């Protein structure tokens, strides 16, 4: 390309010359046209060389505008930084390449340490390391490229592989390798990781300074607040386990050791259980968790219950008591879980629907 | 039934039982502590050491060839046998042959066009010369290979050229060169070199946009042309099979190594110039010192054989 041609073109592109420019004349609104009477002599169709030279100098002195950009000046400019420059998404592909190199290097290290390939029994012994990656929106802001689903999947597939290597390195005890992998992974981890992983996990009930547990139980529309405290074993204990034959020494069976049973109280809204729940069904329901856990006389129970009716209130108290027993003795967890006592019963009164007499009851079907 | 199971070779049978016996000891229990893991690693290390020690007593392996060598350690020059082995001579269906490809076609067999590799080799060498010259003149070279199997090929090839090498492994966005102001932004276009000095395409048929843009931006192109492609679309066509990844590895390897040579030639030349300039300056300074000294009888350079005259 002729070097001079670019300079001449740049001059010809200016509004003054457009009327005498080449065959293809772009449209310029009249307001932008600048006509200098002094420059162009009357009757002349072209400018003389001296005027052209003067204007060329002026162009050189002026700052280059976009349409005067000269590609021949490229030689002195530096190369673009990223080898992925011509993909127009250099930050995204740079990250992909970085992850791939990290994976291949880590794989090599673990192979040399004989930790890869890992047999099945060793894989089962790996520590679980659940992670939460950043959302596509967060990654979009980080990498300055739109994170489509396919791109996000590609990145997360590589991250999951790297996370597997992190698990192997930490479980086998190689802290330096694990730290290096961890530093790369932390860039892509969501800030809400702890919150996300701890969702749905039950908060542990703490016993207060007197050793009481405070739990909450619900059933239907009733809610019960339950306080449980272990009964202090006093010197005066009632021993109900008396067999006359054994006492007189006439029985064949071997003498059993006496069992000391403490007496506990259950108060509901400041009333004893027998007074608040006259029906034995309700009392049985309340006492069932204590019986299953084998702690019938061990804890004193104080409850405040509101809402609903007898069944709902007794169910709520039972739920609260089960949670309280679990707080005092976590070993009873399996038994109570199997009996579904730690579960908040989700059954609620179903609403009445239009066109039906009740929630499910239909009106009498009439043939005509 | 024992005789129905395939029997392994006697010598390796002993070894495999040794291995499985050692591993089954661990298979009974999980690896709980770090010591368990260390024992597990030590078992494997000891077995590997044993195998490495025993390997020197076996037959001598003269061939050091590995499957990954074609990508990671390609040859400097392509040979006819290597190209044949990679299937570079297989073209596309004879019915799809481009009439302009006829000079590079060897013939037809089984309904496909066979490519004449006697034409491929000199054209590949010519393209390598171009790459070497461009790289030696600090030129930017872009490798384009937009299929998943040739993505690592272009990545490696660009790596060999260092700061002057670039690659496009996924889609070439139309307008990269012709619409650069919008694609890269004003700051980047003003500050960095955008238009490359050479573009090498490994699958030109899928990247006609790139070829068109290179033509509009006056960028020379090299490409692997198959029998269904018109060789005139690029400046330096290399007739070969564009669907074979091994062929792409050989060709991209040859070109990228030529580029690396060009860069080292440039480095050597720059070093030579620097040395020449440095020595020239040293000589200049010495000369200045000599000239600055006042001329006296005693300061004349003395010749040992000269006779001293008394003036």
List keywords for this structure.
heterodimer; A: 368 residues; alpha+beta; 3 domains; 5 strands; B: 311 residues; alpha/beta; 3-stranded antiparallel sheet
Q: What is the end-to-end distance of chain B?
A: 123 Å
Helix content of chain B: 40-55%
How many domain regions of chain A? 3
**Structural class given helices, strands, pairing of chain B?**
alpha/beta
Amount of helix of chain A? 40-55%
Q: What characterizes the major β-sheet of chain A?
A: 5 strands, mixed
Secondary-structure topology with pairs:
The complex is a heterodimer of chains A (about 375) and B (about 300).
Chain A: H1 3-12, H2 49-61, H3 90-112, H4 120-124, H5 136-143, H6 149-172, H7 175-188, H8 193-197, E1 213-219, E2 222-230, H9 244-248, E3 266-268, E4 271-272, H10 273-276, H11 280-293, E5 299-306, H12 310-328, H13 333-338
Parallel strand pairs in A: 3-5
Antiparallel strand pairs in A: 1-2, 2-5, 3-4
Chain B: H1 10-27, H2 34-55, H3 69-72, H4 80-85, E1 90-93, E2 105-109, E3 112-115, H5 117-136, E4 141-144, H6 151-160, E5 165-168, H7 180-184, H8 186-191, E6 198-201, H9 208-216, E7 221-225, E8 236-239, H10 245-292
Parallel strand pairs in B: 4-5, 4-6, 6-7, 7-8
Antiparallel strand pairs in B: 1-3, 2-3
Description:
The complex is a heterodimer of chains A (368) and B (311). Chain A has helices spanning 3-12, 49-61, 90-112, 120-124, 136-143, 149-172, 175-188, 193-197, 244-248, 273-276, 280-293, 310-328, 333-338, and strands at 213-219, 222-230, 266-268, 271-272, 299-306. Chain A is α+β, with helices and mostly antiparallel strands. Chain A has a 5-stranded mixed beta sheet with strand order 1-2-5-3-4. Chain B has 311 residues and is α/β, with parallel strands linked by helices. Helix content of chain B is 48%, strand content 11%. Chain B has helices spanning 10-27, 34-55, 69-72, 80-85, 117-136, 151-160, 180-184, 186-191, 208-216, 245-292; strands at 90-93, 105-109, 112-115, 141-144, 165-168, 198-201, 221-225, 236-239. In chain B, the strands form 2 sheets. A 5-stranded parallel beta sheet of chain B has the order 5-4-6-7-8, sandwiched between helices. In chain B, helix 5 (117-136) packs parallel to helix 10 (245-292) and helix 6 packs parallel to helix 10 (245-292). Chain B is extended, with a radius of gyration of 32 Å. The A-B interface holds A 1, 66, 69, 71, 74-75, 77-80, 83-88, 93, 97, 113-115, 119, 121-122, 124-125, 171-173 and B 23, 26-27, 30-32, 34, 36-38, 40-41, 44-45, 48, 140, 142, 144, 155, 158-159, 163-170, 172-173, 176, 181, 183-184, 186, 188-196, 218. Chain A: Residues 49-58 have a biased composition (Acidic residues).
């Amino acid at each position: 390309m002729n070097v001079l041609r670019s300079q001449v073109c740049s001059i010809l592109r200016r509004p003054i010359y457009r009327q005498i420019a080449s065959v293809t004349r772009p449209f310029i609104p009249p307001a932008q046209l600048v006509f200098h009477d002094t420059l162009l002599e009357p009757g002349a169709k072209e400018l003389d060389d001296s005027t052209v030279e003067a204007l060329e100098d002026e162009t050189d002195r002026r700052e280059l505008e976009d349409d005067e950009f000269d590609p021949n000046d490229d030689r002195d400019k530096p190369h673009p930084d990223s080898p992925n420059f011509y993909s127009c998404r250099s930050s995204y592909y740079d990250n992909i390449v970085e992850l791939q190199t990290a994976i291949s290097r880590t794989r090599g290290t673990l192979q040399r340490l004989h930790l890869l390939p890992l047999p099945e029994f060793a894989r089962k012994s790996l520590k679980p390391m659940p992670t939460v990656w950043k959302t596509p929106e967060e990654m979009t802001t980080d990498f300055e490229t739109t994170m489509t689903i396919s791109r996000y999947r590609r990145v997360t597939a590589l991250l999951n592989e790297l996370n597997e290597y992190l698990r192997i390195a930490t479980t086998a005890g190689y802290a330096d390798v694990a730290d290096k992998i961890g530093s790369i992974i932390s860039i892509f981890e969501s800030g809400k990781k702890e919150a996300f992983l701890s969702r749905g996990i039950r908060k542990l009930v703490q016993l207060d300074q007197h050793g009481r547990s405070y739990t909450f139980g619900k059933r239907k529309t009733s809610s019960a607040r339950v306080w449980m405290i272990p009964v202090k074993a006093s010197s005066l204990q009632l021993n109900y386990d008396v067999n006359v034959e054994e006492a007189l020494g006439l029985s064949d069976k071997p003498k059993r050791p006496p069992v000391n049973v403490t007496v506990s109280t259950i108060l509901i809204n400041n009333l004893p259980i027998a007074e608040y729940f006259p029906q034995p069904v309700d009392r049985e329901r309340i006492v069932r968790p204590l019986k299953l856990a084998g702690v019938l006389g061990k804890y004193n129970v104080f409850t405040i219950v509101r809402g609903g009716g007898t069944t709902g209130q007794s169910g709520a108290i039972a739920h609260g008591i089960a949670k309280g027993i679990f707080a005092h003795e976590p070993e009873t967890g399996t038994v109570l879980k199997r009996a579904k006592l730690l579960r908040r019963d989700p059954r609620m009164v179903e609403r009445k629907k239009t066109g039906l007499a009740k929630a499910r009851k239909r009106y009498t079907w009439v043939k005509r | 039934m024992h005789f129905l199971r395939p029997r392994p070779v006697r010598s390796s049978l002993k070894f495999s039982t040794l291995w499985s016996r050692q591993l089954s000891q661990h298979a009974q229990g999980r690896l709980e502590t770090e010591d368990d893991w260390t024992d597990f690693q030590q078992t494997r290390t000891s077995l590997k050491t044993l195998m490495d020690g025993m390997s020197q007593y076996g037959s001598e392996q003269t061939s050091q060839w590995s499957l990954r060598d074609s990508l990671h350690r390609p040859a400097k020059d392509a040979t006819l046998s290597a190209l044949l082995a990679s299937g570079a001579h297989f073209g596309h269906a004879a019915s799809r042959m481009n009439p302009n490809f006829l000079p590079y076609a060897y013939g037809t067999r089984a309904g496909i066009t066979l490519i004449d590799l006697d034409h491929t080799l000199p054209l590949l060498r010519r393209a390598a010369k171009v790459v070497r010259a461009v790289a030696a003149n600090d030129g930017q070279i872009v490798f384009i290979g937009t299929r998943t199997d040739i993505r690592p090929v272009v990545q490696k090839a660009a790596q060999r050229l260092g700061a002057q090498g670039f690659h496009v492994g996924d889609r070439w966005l139309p307008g990269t060169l012709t619409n650069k102001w919008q694609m890269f932004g004003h700051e980047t276009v003003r500050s960095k070199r955008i238009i490359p000095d050479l573009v090498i395409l490994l699958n030109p048929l899928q990247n006609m946009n790139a070829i068109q843009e290179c033509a509009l931006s006056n960028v020379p192109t090299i490409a692997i042309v198959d029998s269904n492609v018109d060789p005139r679309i690029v400046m330096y066509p290399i007739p070969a099979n564009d669907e074979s990844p091994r062929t792409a590895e050989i060709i991209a390897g040859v070109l990228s190594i030529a580029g690396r040579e060009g860069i080292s030639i440039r480095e050597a030349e720059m070093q030579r110039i620097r040395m020449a300039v440095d020595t020239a300056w040293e000589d200049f300074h010495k000369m200045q010192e000599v000239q600055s000294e006042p001329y006296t009888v005693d300061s004349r350079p003395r010749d040992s054989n000269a006779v001293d005259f008394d003036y």
